[in-house]
């Protein structure tokens, strides 16, 4: 008997439809002529809590840290006990098992861990369901792979989940206890990805608070050549006085003197360099989840979680492929579906998608079609199922639009333009001008409504010029500008920052190394992390644009933690190792050993963390804690927040501690 184990009931139902009949639904599984399909509910097994390793960990104590499991323990989740027994019994009866988890790191683990838990020895195949339409499922059933091919992906998932446990369980306890000893009545959740993400928002807010506006001047000159007037921008010399730290001209008097000198000069300008290069811009790649989330945030104002939820709905409606993908490429075999998909999009009458699809050339093959870039999943694209916009919500229509738009662009030519760069010398000063002439709009026709950012010195047209030509000076001007504070994060831009984390690392040597790393967190978890930070009161959304601002607990958490956990350097490096592990180039045991040592060192640092005291009455005995009102067997009393390290205690008098005048370094009273 062949047993399919799907990640969730909806996926099991779709697989059952594509297997030969007869089909009969049972309690916890489906019988078909082609095998039995059962399902989980996400993770059926959960990581054990510290007190499930040892009851003493039920009470949080600094002396017990770090907690490092010698043998990792999984437990059946209470809500899944019945379904687990059904799966276990079916595994016992099966002759072959098909792993039908989602085609990503987490999906690989949650079925594998069940098979390992029951010590399965039966052969296991792997089905990769990147889409749930009938054609895709049948193709996947006929293309099963050996599950052992995905062993490294499972190791990577194990590394991620165990590292998160080590950091989260230990550092949350260590720094919560340290904060409570300083009088803060709070719980501080620390996360390997969550904390550096929160720190990005805290640091950005402090940049804004400390920002001081400064003026600077952009000097430009108009020149005439062959009956065409064009603008060139002044470029200061290396030793130019009056520049700010960013190389901008900040001195008004120098700007004015420069203008007067340029206006008074009489000699002609000289072209010292003029070069034109034909440039080709390849088609924008199809969408990974994070790209889709960022685009939907900018275009429609959607938060990342809404985008993920909507993409999941479209996937379950069989209209788009698997949403939790970090891949922007497509398998070459998928190109065969182009004609059908484009024809379906033409059928979406009265939409831009129909018009663009009608002009698309199905035989065009962009750089997106590349088997070497495909792992367990591929970019999000429309399926061969015909979409009926009338049945979709506005949000679903908008997300489908973005997915289809990116797909259509693959069947347009590359964008071709001539880029001209000219340098001029006038009155001993250097000026540069840039021009661009579009030769073939290509795929940008699909994105023509989008406004592209242009450099301020990128003029639209330049006259034909050659080195040695002498354009005529027309006039010079200086435009006063002001520096702007950095913008606050929104959920979409914070997600983009997590994706491009190399821009925010502290160590400059790591920036280049981490440029190609896929950020911190995963496509599936980034939106959830941002949502959790908001729901737990560390971030709040403000104004219609939903800017994210940190709350008081956020500042406390980021301020008391060491930089190793608040800057993304280490986390980004670890994500890189997880990707290497998925490729078979890193060791699970080595990685977890590093994580254990890291957690241990930060637990030690927590004991000496400098945390501001919170409370009106500082303890006169230890001077490191605050007095807090408590109930004892003799009634109310005030005790030190650092108990039992400090046993200072004082009677209550009118809701205040009754501290004798002579209590300088010693406290007295009752406990």
Which descriptors would you attach to this protein?
alpha+beta; Topoisomerase I, domain 2; 19% strand; disordered C terminus; 20 helices; 5 domains; Rossmann fold; Topoisomerase I, domain 3
Give a written overview of the molecule:
- The chain is an alpha+beta fold and 671 residues long.
- 35% of the residues lie in helices and 19% in strands.
- The chain folds into five domains: 2-143, Rossmann fold (3-Layer(aba) Sandwich), CATH 3.40.50.140; 160-209 and 489-607, Topoisomerase I, domain 2 (Orthogonal Bundle); 215-282 and 415-482, Topoisomerase I, domain 3 (Distorted Sandwich), CATH 2.70.20; 289-411, Topoisomerase I, domain 4; 617-671, no CATH class.
- The strands form five sheets. The chain has a seven-stranded mixed β-sheet with strand order 2-3-4-1-7-8-9. Strands 10, 11, 12, 13, 14, 15 and 16 form a seven-stranded mixed β-sheet that branches.
- A hairpin with a 2-residue loop joins strand 3 and strand 4.
- The radius of gyration is 31 Å and the shape is flat.
